[in-house]
Structures are given as structure tokens and as C-alpha cells.
Specification:
GO terms for molecular function: hydrolase activity. The chain folds into two domains: 232 residues, Rossmann fold (3-Layer(aba) Sandwich); 79 residues, no CATH class. 31% of the residues lie in helices and 21% in strands. Helix 4 links the parallel strand 9 and strand 10.
Length: 394
């Protein structure tokens, strides 16, 4: 029986997508994320603005570059860069999914065969499923991937009013995904906070994970104990204020699209390039109803005031002893450790001694290496998957 998938609601627009498989042509209905406004047809000309020209080079990657440069659907609230992201998804037969949770739904992007259990991909703090848009198309086509928007991110529901976000709560989202698809195990790939969530889930429930890949955040970071009380004193009131603003239902500050790109670029210490930024902005912005030609961020502002795990290194090391399955960690050379380096090294030494299937790779890149320079990550991930991935049909 094919894997049951929670599809986007009937209000979505279905676009017929055609792709070649051998000598036959197979048609797929590819739901597009539910968005406001009407749609029209737009053709991107070669003499388009610099942003679009730059984005085209990114969107139409190795295997698709130079083919059609045309979007079939344009929503009125979209910037033209977002039309190209949608075209990119159609080119790769990506399917939007919605997974019910008690407070709403978790949104995701399903890549690859729909009857093969996918590798669940988890993004970093304040990012979304679009962070994997440039990596997944370069990985083997017979494998499936499900990139999620965590609660409060991307197109997923926010947690209820009056609550705070906590990293550990995201492990519950993985249980909701498992329940929806009736999976007994997960294969995980996470970046940054998503890598930490993958570690927490894997080490707590080792019998529920067959392998996991972490990118650029090894484990919960060790906070400076002397600074933590002041951080708590500052962030709790900030979270309360953000929650109050959410309940006012007022529109956040809006900016020209080019400024959104610049804010994302500089806000990530330039680890998200301007060229790659629209892949994240697509699921994270909306056109202002108050200011023409301006856009605002839609992620939940309460996310900014999280506190991390708050436990010490001894707990991380105890959890690390439980990670005995195939485990790949990729560290960017030009990205910070977010803690004293000794904690990283101590953790790696323990895992190496305890898990013969642990692999550590350093890559000459920055924090968002999988998004901005996927060609450097693909050989490492592809080799690991070649050794440990096993097809499981449902």
C-alpha cells in the first residue's frame, strides 16, 4: 500500500506537472502552497533585473540550468523571485504536505518517490524547509526526502498564544510525523538547530532512528553560567511582549524585497548569500497590505527569545553514548562553534570511541553551507547514504 500523505487542503491550486521516466511520461498533480490573491502568467526575460538573473543561475542548477525560464503561476503577493522558487519545485516534482497537530498543522515539502519512506530534514533556527532546496535536487533521485517547517516557522502553525518556544518541544513534532505516516523509524538530516533536534531525538529514542546526518551544530551548546541569569531576565519579558504583539494581529514592519534579502544576508553573518536568500524568504514572508511593494517576515517573533537547553556537558555526553547507529556530522570551517571548542572536541572523542559508524567531515564553507554551496556537501552526504540508506516502501 502506498505511503499515506497528508495533502494540502482542497483550497490549494493543483498544477499538472509532467516528467520523463524512461520512455514513458508520468503526470503528477503538484499542490502549490495555499496563498492569497489571484494568479497570472509571467515570462522571465533574459534582460530581467539583476536579482532575477542571479536567482535563475541558482534555481536552474546543474541538471536543469538552461532549460525553460518561465513560471506558470504568479500570485499577486509574490515577488518575482518567489515565482521562480515555485517553478524550481515544479521542475523537481515537489509536493506540499500538511501534517495535523493539536494546535494546527506542520507544513512540509516531499521530494522524490511518494511510496518510499523519506529522510526527514529539519531546518535551523528561524529558517524553514526551503533551506534544503538546493541540496536535495543533487542527491539520488530514487531516495525520498521530507523537509519540514517546524512550528512557528515557514508555513507551519504557531504554538498557542501565551506559550514560549523550546528546542526540546520540536521532538514532539517528529512523533506527530511518525504517527501520521505510521512509520516505526525515522532517518534524519538536520541543519543547525535541526541538527541538535536530530541528536536529541536519536539519543533519547535510539531504537526509532536508523541513521542521522547533522550539519554544523553538533549538540546543545554549553552556556556561560555567569551570563545565563541575565539572559533569562532579559528574554522572558521580551517573549511576553512578542506574544502580546501577536495577539494584537497587527502587521509587522515591512520592507522592500531587496532589503529583506539584505537583512537575511547580514543577519546570518553573510552565511546565506543574496542569491540563495529567496529559497528561505519564499516560506517566510508575505506582501504588505498596508505598503505597496513591501514585504514582512511571517515567522513567529517569539522564536527569537528561546533559551536553549540549559543543561551541562555531562548530560550531552551521556546522551552521546546512546548514539550507536550510522552518524555523519559535517562542520563548516568558517562557522563558529557557539561554545568553547573543548566541549565540541570532548563530545567527538567520546562518540568516535563509542560508535564505529560515526563520520566527521570538515568543509571549507560557512554556516549555511548546504544551501549556499551544496556542491561541497553532496559528495559527503551521497557517500554516507550510499552506505547506509535502505529503501523502505510503505
Amino acid at each position: 500500500m502506498p505511503v499515506h500523505r497528508a495533502l494540502i487542503s482542497a483550497a490549494s491550486v493543483d498544477n499538472a506537472h509532467t516528467r520523463r521516466e524512461g520512455a514513458s511520461t508520468v503526470r503528477h498533480k503538484t499542490p502549490v502552497p495555499q496563498r492569497e490573491g489571484h494568479f497570472t502568467t509571467m515570462v522571465v526575460k533574459g534582460s530581467g533585473v539583476m536579482l532575477v538573473k542571479s536567482l535563475l543561475g541558482s534555481l536552474f542548477s546543474h541538471e536543469t540550468r538552461g532549460i525553460v525560464q518561465r513560471t506558470a503561476v504568479r500570485y499577486s503577493h509574490h515577488h518575482q523571485a518567489h515565482d521562480l522558487v515555485e517553478e524550481h519545485d515544479r521542475q523537481h516534482d515537489v509536493e506540499e504536505v500538511r501534517i495535523p497537530v493539536p494546535y494546527g498543522e506542520i507544513a512540509g515539502k516531499w521530494w522524490g518517490p511518494r511510496d518510499v519512506r523519506p529522510i526527514v530534514c529539519i531546518h535551523g533556527w528561524q529558517d524553514n524547509a526551503g533551506t534544503f532546496d538546493r541540496l536535495i535536487p543533487l542527491l539520488p533521485k530514487h531516495m525520498s526526502f521530507l523537509a519540514l517547517d517546524l512550528p512557528g516557522h515557514g508555513l507551519s502553525s504557531r504554538i498557542p498564544d501565551g506559550m514560549m518556544y523550546h528546542t526540546l518541544d520540536n521532538t514532539l513534532s517528529l512523533f506527530h510525523v511518525m504517527r501520521e505516516y505510521r512509520w516505526k523509524k525515522l532517518s534524519l538530516m538536520g541543519h543547525s538547530m535541526g541538527s541538535i533536534i536530530s541528536f536529541l531525538f536519536t539519543s533519547t529514542f535510539p531504537d526509532k532512528v536508523d541513521f542521522y546526518i547533522g550539519i554544523d551544530a553538533l549538540k546543545p551548546h554549553i552556556a556561560d553560567a555567569a551570563k545565563f541569569p541575565g539572559r533569562l531576565e532579559k528574554r522572558l519579558p521580551q517573549s511576553l511582549l512578542a506574544d502580546a504583539r501577536n495577539r494584537e494581529k497587527s502587521e509587522p514592519p515591512a520592507y522592500p524585497y531587496e532589503e529583506l534579502i539584505e537583512r537575511l544576508h547580514l543577519g546570518t553573518n553573510k552565511s546565506v548569500t543574496r542569491e540563495a536568500a529567496p529559497f528561505l524568504l519564499y516560506r517566510n514572508t508575505r506582501k504588505s497590505t498596508l505598503h505597496p511593494d513591501r514585504y514582512y517576515f511571517t515567522r513567529d517573533s517569539r522564536l527569537k527569545y528561546g533559551l536553549g537547553m540549559g543543561w551541562d556537558q555531562a548530560i550531552n555526553l551521556e546522551l552521546a553514548k546512546r548514539v550507536v547507529q550510522p552518524y555523519l556530522f559535517i562542520k563548516a570551517k568558517h562557522s563558529p562553534y557557539y561554545e568553547e571548542r573543548k566541549y565540541f572536541d570532548e563530545f567527538v572523542e567520546l562518540v568516535k570511541g563509542n560508535n564505529p559508524q560515526f563520520e566527521l567531515e570538515f568543509v571549507d564553507s560557512t554556516h549555511h553551507l548546504h544551501l549556499t554551496e551544496p556542491e561541497k556537501v553532496v559528495p559527503i552526504v551521497g557517500r554516507f547514504l550510499g552506505k547506509y540508506w535502505k529503501e523502505e516502501r510503505g
